[in-house]
Amino acid sequence: MLDVALLSVLLVAIAIGYGLGYRQALRRRHRTHPPAASSQGLSRDYFVGLNYLLNEQPDEAINTFINVLAVNSDTVHTHIALGKLFRARGEADKAVSIHQNLLARPALSQHTNEQIQLELARDFMALGVHDRAQRLLNTLLEHSGDDDHRYAAKQLLVDLLEREKAWQQALDVIQPLLKQYPKMRRPAAHWLCELALEEISEASRPLAKKHLKKALQLDEKCVRATLMLAELEMDNGHYARAIERLDNIPGQEIAHIPTMLPALKHAYMRNNDDTGYEAHLYRLLELAPYTSTIIALGQLVHQRDGVDKAIELIGERLRAVPSLGGLDYLIDLYIESQRLSGKPSPDTRLLLLKHHTDALLLNRTRHRCQRCGFASDALQWQCPSCRFWGTIKPVIGVEGE
Ligand SMILES: [Zn+2]
């Protein structure tokens, strides 16, 4: 597909270049000689390229066409577009040579020169040569007076620093831009969470807490910062404060209720407060009837009032909101109930059903990126596919929550 795009760009560019060149040649001839029958044609290389194309050798065709296409003010943007296409199809080294070749031309305007430098920085990033990309971007930021180019350079620099996990440097670059570009608040909040994680691993909890509070100032909907703050409170034995923190999560992002449940259970259990936990779970169920919350409630009732009460509760909840996970848990409860009633082995039909629900649950997607659809078993705060922060959430529906 990209080969077709590349070849189309090249063929159109060559045709335009040829047309312009032919017109200029005609004008020159009018000035110096009387009109004569023109026998000017396309260069030999053009036909060699076409031959490669007809022989289904697109790479050779592309290389030959590039050689035909001379760099001048009419074709410089075609060369830039070609470089982009090479990079997009994974041949960033070719993109580098095209863009470096362009930069060697002395007649380029400042604007075009900066555009090419940005492209070259992207090529180096694609090749993983981050130090060269960083040097180019810093030079551009020092010398460019064009606001659009400066913003593009800062965005690339931030992307690069993020890939290098240089969170503080990324924050330093983005901080002055947050007012103008509020959508950068979310990634900045996550970088602060990353810094907090580093502080926690170095046993510097007060600093971690400071980063997390700042993250919430930048993005009040940052579930990750709230969750981490609650965990810090629990580490210090402040379970009631942890519960208070966790109570904010449904308001930040309702789909993350299942994400917070293990921490919520831990806080209430360490506080010896079953009644509070049960009331909290009922409150969460009123907000959203997620399977994880129903199962958490079932586990509490099972432990406290016995398996039959749990079966009654789960059966009733599942009638209202059916789900695969809930059904699987209900089958577990039935098997447990039969074991307790003294049956030597559980009903084979139950075991068969359990076999099916286990297999279905094994293949389900638990988390999905809301932006690009990337599926992931565990929750990841940055999508590995589209690289957006905070877009992966628990899957809701019969197979999910
Ligand atoms: Zn994504």
TrEMBL record:
Pfam families in UniProt: TPR_16, TPR_19, TPR_7, Zn_ribbon_LapB
Membrane topology note: Single-pass membrane protein
GO biological-process terms attached to the record: lipopolysaccharide metabolic process; regulation of lipid biosynthetic process
Listed Gene3D superfamilies: 1.20.58.2200, Tetratricopeptide repeat domain
Primary site of residence: membrane
GO molecular function, one term: iron ion binding
Record topological domains on the Cytoplasmic side: 27-401
Keywords in alphabetical order: Cell inner membrane, Cell membrane, Iron, Membrane, Metal-binding, Repeat, TPR repeat, Transmembrane, Transmembrane helix
Start and end residues of each LapB rubredoxin metal binding domain: 367-394
InterPro entries, alphabetized: FimV_C_sf, LapB, Rubredoxin_2, TPR-like_helical_dom_sf, TPR_rpt
Transmembrane intervals: none
Record: residues binding Fe cation: C369, C372, C383, C386
Protein family: Belongs to the LapB family.
Function: Modulates cellular lipopolysaccharide (LPS) levels by regulating LpxC, which is involved in lipid A biosynthesis. May act by modulating the proteolytic activity of FtsH towards LpxC. May also coordinate assembly of proteins involved in LPS synthesis at the plasma membrane.
HAMAP family tied to this protein: LPS_assembly_LapB
Descriptive protein name: Lipopolysaccharide assembly protein B
Gene: lapB
